[in-house]
Amino acid sequence: MTEPVGAASVDYAIDAYWERGWHGPAIVRVTPSSITVLPDAPTADHHNSGARHLPGVLLPGFRDSHVHLGLIEPRSLIAGGLAAVDDLGGDPGRLIEWASDNMVPALRYAGAFITAPGGYPATRAWAATLSVCEVSTPEQAIAVVAEQVAAGASLIKVTLNTDDGPVIADETLDAVVEYSHSRGCEVVAHAQGIGQAQRAFDAGVDRLAHTPWSERLDDALIETMAQSDPRFLGGRHSWVSTLDIHGYGQRGIDCDIASDNLRRFHLAGGIVRYGTDLGNGDLPPGLNQRELVALQDAGVRNDALLRALCLPSLGSTVSYLPTVPDADTDLAQWLMTATVLTAPELMRTR
Fold first, then answer.
1. Structural domains in the chain (count)
2. How confident is the prediction for the chain on average, in pLDDT?
3. Is residue 5, in this structure, part of any structural domain at all?
4. Distance (Å, rounded) from C-alpha 78 to C-alpha 74?
């Protein structure tokens, strides 16, 4: 296919794509800032369609919904297959820099951890390279949230870890949630210790940073957590998976409890997000096949797995896989063959 220099768009014929479900052959139009499927475009004979054939599949970009860029090399992640990440605890100054770096995946971030004085992770050695704000009153909590929002945060991270120190009081947690929501920010909680997952949910925390593993949650609680609820931004509460942090492939009791909770939450219709806590221990710098397999083993399979992993829709960045899966394809292994493609890259390679 030949395009004039400076062409405003380029068309590609692809074998299939996934966007909230599987679709067959299609024509996608690429501009410098977007990748869009053309509705009702003829695809039976791409040689006569005027479009260049791009064999394989396009999916919305893969996102890891729990990373810590301050503990890894952020520029390694695109090569590892990630198009986007949510940083759930870091130095806001560094995060601002990474958010404007086109060698780093598209970034949403929470900024500092908000915790009680002496609470997790203030006493951890690795937290020295990140950012932790210790608060003891609702007024202090509101001020800290305002600082994170001013630094570009669209998420707010609070820690409720009774296994590793004190936690903020209910009125302070309520202030974090109420003020964050007033600023349009989801609240994410590290909930660890008996009763902390329910406490976070009852307070209106939008997302759990980890699938609960401290206890087997009651079926009725999980059913309630999975339902629509206007208290949450977007109307739903969600969980980030992070199953592989429990043993890094050597599963034990914590992984078993988390997997059981996640399986029941998913079956009840709960929103599951792929996330690894990248930066925490022996995790690969990019897409983690062990996490994908653990999700499948917990019942999050096929379209549900892709919904947990992918951005909501095709955009200026997509995940490209050179083959089309069939009924016998190992989905987790197939996903590991993905590369990140941007609209400008597709424009240049026409």
1. 2
2. 94
3. no
4. 9
327 and 215 belong to one structural domain? no
277 assigned to some structural domain: yes
Check whether 144 has a pLDDT greater than 90. yes
- Residue 184 and residue 254 in one domain: yes
Q: Which domain holds residue 43?
A: 10-60+314-348
243: left (phi over 0), alpha (psi -120 to 50) or beta: alpha
Q: Is there a domain that residue 3 lies in? A: no
pLDDT at 1 over 70: no
Tell me how far apart the alpha carbons of residues 157 and 88 are, in angstroms, rounded to a whole number: 6
CATH number for 55: 2.30.40.10
Indicate whether 18 and 54 sit together in one domain: yes
* Rg (the chain; Cα; Å): 21
State the pTM of this model.
0.95
pLDDT at 6 over 90: no
Calculate mean pLDDT across residues 96-119. 97
- 279-289 exposure pattern, b = at least 16 Cβ within 10 A, e = fewer: bbeebbbbbbb
CATH number at residue 212: 3.20.20.140
| Per-residue pLDDT at 276 exceeds 80 | yes
